[in-house]
Amino acid sequence: MIKVSLLIPTLDQSGAEKQLALLATSLPRDEFEVQVIALTRGGPYENLLKEHNIPVTILNKRFKFDPLAYRALKKTLQKQQPDILHTWLFAANSYGRMAVKRLAASQKIPKVIVSERCVDSWKSNWQHNVDRRLLPQTSLLVGNSQGVVDFYREKGVPNSILRVVCNGIPIPDTSVCEATRNQLFQEHDIPENARLIAFVGRLARQKRIEDLLWALQLVRQMDENIILLLVGDGPERAKLEELTRQYTITPNVRFLGHRPDVNKLFPLFELFLLASDFEGQSNSIMEAMSYGIPVVASDIPPNRELVIHGETGFLTSVGDCTGFAQYTERILADPELAKQLGTAAQKRMQEEFSVDKMVKGYATLYHEVLK
Hints:
Elements: E1 2-10, H1 15-26, E2 32-41, H2 44-51, E3 56-58, H3 67-80, E4 84-88, H4 90-101, E5 111-116, H5 125-133, E6 140-143, H6 146-154, E7 162-164, H7 178-187, E8 195-200, H8 209-219, E9 226-231, H9 237-246, E10 253-257, H10 262-265, E11 271-274, H11 283-290, E12 295-298, H12 301-304, E13 313-316, H13 321-333, H14 335-352, H15 355-370
Parallel strand pairs: 1-2, 1-4, 2-3, 4-5, 5-6, 6-7, 8-9, 8-11, 9-10, 11-12, 12-13
Helix pairs in contact: 3-4, 8-13, 11-14
Protein name: Alpha-1,4-N-acetyl-D-galactosaminyltransferase
EC number: 2.4.1.292
Keywords: Glycosyltransferase, Transferase
């Protein structure tokens, strides 16, 4: 039995947390004993893990570097005695490797697998320095896309420890829930004849949602019934709300905030949009494709690994608002094209990005590091 401890900052309802929960609940129980540690807090996925009888430890970290949480992590690892410590995201990647570095030689020293989930151009020099200093404690660094792995190779991570395991996406229920549709339309005063296009994710600068607003200003000239749904929340919300007023597109935009029922909303969308200037491997694109929704996305390496231009959706240059508008108009004006793109997108997710394939990928790496 291989003992695996999964360490992540929180168990919020976000992309990395979802992939961790899918992995933890899907690893074969006759082969792996899994425990989960959250540095800062629990969240929606804590309940899911506990429903699957997976122990969860919350360390209640309060500061960027919290000595109490650091000591609690060391004690937790000493108690759990994992064969493998699998860390996710910068804070957990740092705390986990530092804690392993300070374990006494007489104690069981786990192999450390680090998961990087994004092309982290946001990292400053000190954060990259931390990553470099902790490389000796890193058995493998796993990216969720080739773009992420290429980024870290350029930052000096040896190719010998780099691996790719793509995100996994469950096969969803694509039927429309009429109760959800009616509630959504009533709650947000959406006309019955509205055509819904959507963004799902954090309202953050990297997502370049202002490009989508500018594109919408062009697209609505074709069809005033188009409504852009922005599902999620974040630091850019107030700025984006002001932009909708400046662009005079307030009637065509709805800010839905965080929605725990987002999976019930996907079947209502005719088109999914993502304009980010950097990503890892977008869970929201994958979810949209799994529902058979065509995608228009920024042409960056991680998105290119998901969206095949002209086959499952369209790609356009970062910041190309006109390109987003043109492809949006093209798809909405041609139902047959939209159907072809959506069907191909759904098939691609089912064949190339299944949860089973993701789980087998990590299980293979766990065996590899223990050899």
